[in-house]
Amino acid sequence: MSDSQEDFDTAPDHFLELKSHHGIFHGLKFYFADDVNKDFYKSIVTKLGGTVLDDPPKDVQSGQYIVSHVNTFEMPTVDPLFLSNSAEQNTLLNIAPFILPPVNENAAYDVEVPDADSSIDSRITKASEKQEREAQAQAEAEARGRHHDVASAAIAAAAASLGHSEDEREGKKDDHGLRRHVMDAGVRLEQGESPVSDVNERNVSADATGAVAIGEPSKTVLSRSSNLPPHNKSSFTEEEDEFILDVVRKNPTRRTTHTLFDEISHYVPNHTGNSIRHRYRVYLSKRLNYVYKVDENGKLLRDEKGEFIKTDVLPQGLKRKFTAEEDYQLAINIKTQFYKDIYQSDPTTGESLIRDDDEPSTVAKRKMVMDPTFIPGKEPSFQEYTVGDRRGPLSREFFKTYGEKYPKHTENAWRDRFRKFLLNYGIDEYIAYYENERANNRIPEPMKNMTNRVKRPGPAPGNYNNAKKVKFMSPTGQQPTSASTNQYTIPQDDLLDEETLSFITGLKRDLSRMESHQNAAPDVPFEYTQELAESIRNNFAMEETQFDTINPDEIPFPPPIATTDLFMPEFFHFASTREFLNKVHDIVNRTYHTSQAEKLVEDLRDECGIRKAFSTSILTALSGDLMVLPRYFLCAFRYSANPPMNVPGIWTKEDDEMLKNGSEEDMKLLVKKHGTGRIEMRKRFHQNDLV
DNA sequence: GCGCACACCCACACACCAC
DNA sequence: GGTGGTGTGTGGGTGTGCG
């Protein structure tokens, strides 16, 4: 008996009573539009009392659905997950969340959903009293007995989505396998499990690797919320609150950001980033009590036992406000620089800065900045000198040095403060204001309200609602940014962080959706994904001998294909292709905190010299399968092709077109190249607009 | 009627790019 | 290489209306 069956059989009576004598699909008809795993789904439907239609329904009828990953029929179309999840739980789930919108947005039809009263979720949804909900949630948790808790639920879903066997999730296989697969699914990994998230011994997969998926959504949370429309208001449960606090504690430097809570929202499907952030700010921040120590880069630190270190000292956020003292010091320093430039005299010592042996370049620069009417010895004192309208020139070197001397703000930030605030306020004016306030024993304020920029089009920044996000990874790569003008040969050039975030959080969204649908037994993936897992794993194993055994030592370094628009200067510091690939392997096998998605891309940039746009585009081509990343470079370098053609697991634009067209001949070719498992994954990418 | 979930706002810190 | 333009998300909120 499988774990899922065991779990189900230990469920309380109110679950069991939902089983239908006729089979849960009794009275429902399904037409299967996709070939992938068609027989499997057909057998589920038949076995559980449903009817399989040979032809697509010609009109909308109650209890009649097309089963597909995409709604191209403009008829009620349901995701296959509905079948597998319902079968998994032997319960007719609420079909509404599984209904796919038509590709043609103008298509209009009414969808009559079957009586959802028989679904666990609707029962929970209708339980209005909090006490009842909590009691039911607890009953669920207890019913699952040996449940793997939140962490393994997320891992299970991640593994399920990209294909991971039960054995591997149970830690019976190598830990690399797990990490790879979880990362494959685009889920960011933590550096380790939380000592406070009650990860139990059963979480072998998490413990073995020290890697726990960020998701960690409480099983109770997921089950209760799984079938609710996302726009519904719903209360935060204790489990959700604890999950939010736990993530914040592991991301203390991001506790005030919007993106952290947006990322959390992908694992708490019933709430938006806006609401979770508000929940934290207004209610939960009071309960934070401690966070985990992080280094200067925001990475979690561990003690000698390998556990996270609690601290009640909150680290700095990502941005720091300028203080009045900083503004004043900046004004004084710039005034000093201008004084030196104009009079070529040190304001404190009065010594001339002009030397007989000055380099010609120094002399030339001096002529550009100094006052031509100035008579040496006649310069005013520093106090008497006023900057007036002078705005520059001020060398970049000035801000570079200033940023190094005062690292509380970056070089760019200091320069921007000068440009946007000090120049607008007036250097002399701010110095006078500051000194006057001090002289009168008042506390001067920093400059403010000096920015006057045109309001940007679209939603205001800091708004993370349920609205459809901007599609960053369009096939055309068209973006209303300067990216369209640069020289990159790959389509997605700019908005790098956003792309990365969009890419990975998009996957996470997909995952969380699947997780939320596995409410009764989230630690056991549905059969479909096990097949998918098996398929991808088998393919990969077979391909290894053909595609991963190219000797990197035979590839000259740097390879001709490695151009500066794809690689940073750091890349060219590698001594050999092997050394570069070793580093890629190193990163691929590394674990990351789940909220550090962009960290992966940043590490690839910082340690391998791969530009973020390039690595993002590669990850897209790989459908997020990190295992194939070394293969990508190996083949690209070996065959001087980007992307390398005819390599399994690497999707080219042509492949995607063929998949979209879906002709029998094209599909045969794709199956031959990528295998059915990867095709299934790619379809999900298409579904989620990630290609 | 009210608490809370969720939407929305915006100044600005920091960044990057084109000229 | 100095400068202006502007993209982007943080930080710290407030507004709105559902349950």
UniProtKB/TrEMBL annotation:
Residues 20-100 form the BRCT domain. Coiled coil: none annotated. Residues 228-284 form the Myb-like domain. Residues 228-288 form the HTH myb-type domain. SUPFAM superfamilies: BRCT domain, Homeodomain-like. It comes from the Eukaryota. The keyword Phosphoprotein does not apply. Residues 127-148 are annotated as: Disordered. Involved in the regulation of telomere length, clustering and has a specific role in telomere position effect (TPE). This is DNA-binding protein RAP1.
